[in-house]
Design goal:
With about 525 residues, the protein is of the alpha+beta class. The radius of gyration is 29 Å and the shape is elongated. The strands form two sheets. Strands 4, 5, 6, 7, 8, 9, 10, 11, 12 and 13 form a ten-stranded antiparallel β-sheet that branches. α1 packs parallel to α6 and α8 packs parallel to α11. A hairpin with a 3-residue loop joins β7 and β8. The termini are far apart. The protein has 21 helices and 13 strands. InterPro entries: TLDc_dom. Pfam families: TLD. This is TLDc domain-containing protein.
Length: about 525
């Protein structure tokens, strides 16, 4: 058994292994899963049992993406063997308690994101080799140290991303082998091609043939791209391994491990019609943590009614314009993601802005933190630079005369009149300026071939998603109900005041017009 009795002498090796496993918070789950997986007589886990534990088979109904590598369906059949081979060193009789803990720590222990990414690449390289496919990825091992060189092709990277998606999907479901869709992550692949490929910045990203091209993505550059653009990607392997081992723990432990997951087989067919498709939501989630990470993934894993709870505003549904936007967003005091789909020069693209506070009607910039996103066709995100705090600008018309009127609309970054992103009050025109105008967010292009001159684009649709969680939404609903009640009360007319014609203001005005010189007796 994994747990030792009080009278048993614990070796330093075992104490160290248990201490490292405890630092991950998974020691209790590992003890229970070892007890269920191991042979009661030998007190070891047979390799075949551990391989069966990590077996992942998928049956996807559809695929968002237009390009599908032929090798992918068979790739996942070898994932379980690769995980066991890369991390769990077994003896002839199987895997003892210490080797089991050490294997888990090698895969899921506390380590840098760079080391975790190397683990992911090792698993992917081994899986590719076992499937019989060829790859330019080269992994060398010397005394337990691994050196990863070579390159990946765009199709290889797409399979790596899909492998991560499959592992992440499985870790959020209580049952294995559930049906799911392969999401469209072409925006991530094109982002890597633009950043890592030779002449990537000059490539035509609107050309679908790039995904199947032989452009080489050097591992060193790809490593930097992952750490900068999708730093949470290696966590997919960690969560998959933990969730699979949790299934062999008692019911209570399994419930704890899957507490963050939603229903087993949600229907997210309607979510494909949103700007925030499951693929785009997952892409953004790879840059987020905490509550926002979980809330945005509801688009991928929750039922449609749960998805709609987070949708605060959609121009094609609620109507275009700043007033319609404001009536749906006002009172939401939490992180808000704004997505804007626009077209310019016969190409459509989508950008986004994430702010961490409620929207206010102000004629100046405000905010505490935020990020800008280039979402499609090429993905990228730009966090705060720390130089300025012009995170968001949202200004409605002011009643009365203004000597120096401020722009009416929504803006992100830059300054008044020179916003990096500015959406006009009718939600019909979008202006995107070069990052040189902006010191709040890090520099970078928000859409392909963005030049130095401001770009004026036609708005196709706007979506606003609340990422603050259920309690924040409940507070907003209460606020909107109060506002609606106040509005109805202001519209009501006290009929008792106007039922007597002799006492009405209209009667007094008509008498004054008809006979202005008549003496009016003042009532006291």
């Amino acid at each position: 058994m994994g747990a030792s009795s009080s009278t048993e002498q614990v070796s330093p090796e075992r104490r160290e292994a248990e201490s490292l496993a405890a630092s991950t918070g998974a020691l209790t789950v590992l003890e229970k899963s070892f007890s269920n997986l191991s042979d009661p007589q030998t007190q070891t886990i047979p390799i075949s049992s551990l391989q069966e534990c990590f077996e992942l088979s998928i049956d996807y109904q559809s695929c968002e993406a237009s390009f599908k590598p032929e090798n992918f369906p068979g790739l996942l059949n070898h994932l379980n063997h690769s995980i066991v081979e890369q991390f769990f060193s077994a003896e002839e009789n199987g895997l003892n308690w210490i080797a089991f803990l050490n294997g888990y720590t090698k895969c899921c222990g506390r380590m840098t994101t760079s080391d975790s990414l190397n683990n992911l690449l090792r698993v992917f390289g081994s899986t590719i080799t076992k499937s019989g496919a060829t790859t330019g990825l080269k992994i060398e091992s010397t005394d337990g140290d691994y050196k990863i060189n070579g390159h990946l092709l765009p199709a290889d990277l797409l399979m790596l991303l899909w492998m991560c998606w499959a592992m992440y999907w499985d870790s959020r479901n209580s049952k294995g082998g559930v049906k799911f869709d392969l999401v469209d992550v072409n925006n991530l692949v094109l982002s890597a091609v633009s950043s890592c490929g030779d002449g990537g910045s000059e490539l035509n990203v609107w050309d679908d043939s790039l995904l199947g091209s032989d452009i080489q993505l050097p591992i060193g550059k790809l490593h930097v791209w992952v750490l900068k653009t999708v730093p949470n990607l290696p966590e997919c392997l960690v969560q998959f391994v933990y969730s699979r081992l949790s299934k062999f723990a008692p019911q209570q432990e399994k419930m704890e491990a899957s507490s963050s997951s939603t229903n087993d087989n949600p229907s997210n067919s309607e979510s494909h019609t949103y700007l925030l498709t499951p693929g785009k939501a997952w892409s953004i989630s790879l840059t987020l943590r905490s509550t926002m990470h979980e809330e945005i993934l509801k688009t991928c894993f929750a039922h449609d009614d749960e998805v709609k709870e987070n949708l605060l505003y959609r121009a094609s549904l609620h109507g275009k314009g700043l007033n319609r936007f404001w009536s749906n967003v006002e009172g939401y005091n939490g992180p808000i993601l704004v997505l804007i789909s626009a077209t310019s020069e016969d190409h459509s693209w989508t950008i986004g802005a994430l702010t961490h506070q409620a929207y206010e009607n102000k004629d100046t910039f405000y905010g505490t933190s935020g990020s800008l996103y280039a979402i499609s066709p090429v993905f990228d995100h730009f966090t705060s630079s720390g130089k300025e705090k012009n995170f968001v600008y949202s200004h409605l018309h002011v009643a009365g005369y203004e000597a120096y009127p401020k722009p009416v609309g929504i803006g992100f970054g830059g300054s008044n009149g020179n916003e990096r992103i500015f959406l006009d009050e009718d939600f019909s025109k979008l202006i995107v300026r070069h990052h040189a105008y902006d010191k709040t967010y890090h520099p970078g292009s928000l859409f392909p071939n963005q030049g130095y001159l401001p770009t004026e684009a036609q708005v196709l649709d706007v979506e606003v998603w609340g990422l603050g969680g259920k309690k924040v939404k409940e507070v907003q609903n209460s606020f909107l109900k109060r506002e609606q009640l106040f509005t109805e009360q202001r519209r009501k007319i006290d009929l008792k005041t106007f039922t007597n014609w002799e006492d009405s203001p209209e009667k007094m005005m008509m008498d004054m017009v008809s006979n202005p010189s008549a003496v009016q007796r003042e009532k006291r």
